[in-house]
């Protein structure tokens, strides 16, 4: 398995797909990176040589925010929202949906364990 910025990417998948296993890289960004480096997106990840992996590492660390740095940035943004006591921060603190979804039905996983409604006559 090739190791790119500390993440083992699957070697039997196409390079375009296997780069998406890195947190913060989707299909679109994967294609952009491959274009910048001049690689073929249809080659398998196991076919990359050491030089190509090194160039990939250098590009991802210098130009993009991925993996640990991105996770840290997201957590800091959520902590900032909680700290300033804004509406979105309060929703994060209570574990409720943040982006306007309904809570009367659905949203069970965010609200907690399922509670049965007792004594409801049909």
Q: What is the CATH domain class of the largest domain?
A: Mainly Alpha
Count of helical stretches:
6
| Category by helix and strand content | mainly alpha
Percentage of residues in DSSP E strands: under 5%
List the uncertain runs. none
Summarize model confidence as the mean pLDDT. 88
Domain count: the total is: 2
| N-to-C order of helices and strands | EEHHHHHH
What is the alpha-carbon Rg in Å?
Answer: 21 Å
Distance between the termini: 58 Å
Coarse shape: elongated
Number of strands: 2
Q: Report strand order across the widest sheet.
A: 1-2
> Largest sheet at a glance?
2 strands, antiparallel
CATH topology of the largest domain: Helicase, Ruva Protein, domain 3
The percent range for helix content is: 40-55%
Can you tell me the CATH architecture of the largest domain? Orthogonal Bundle
How is this fold's topology laid out?
Blueprint lengths: L2 E2 L2 E2 L6 H4 L8 H11 L12 H14 L3 H17 L3 H8 L13 H4 L11
Question: What this model shows, in words?
Answer:
The chain is mainly alpha-helical and 122 residues long. The protein has 2 domains: 62 residues, Helicase, Ruva Protein, domain 3 (Orthogonal Bundle), CATH 1.10.8.50; 44 residues, Ribosomal protein S13/S18, C-terminal domain (30s ribosomal protein s13, domain 2), CATH 4.10.910.10. It has 6 helices and 2 strands. A two-stranded antiparallel ribbon has the order 1-2.
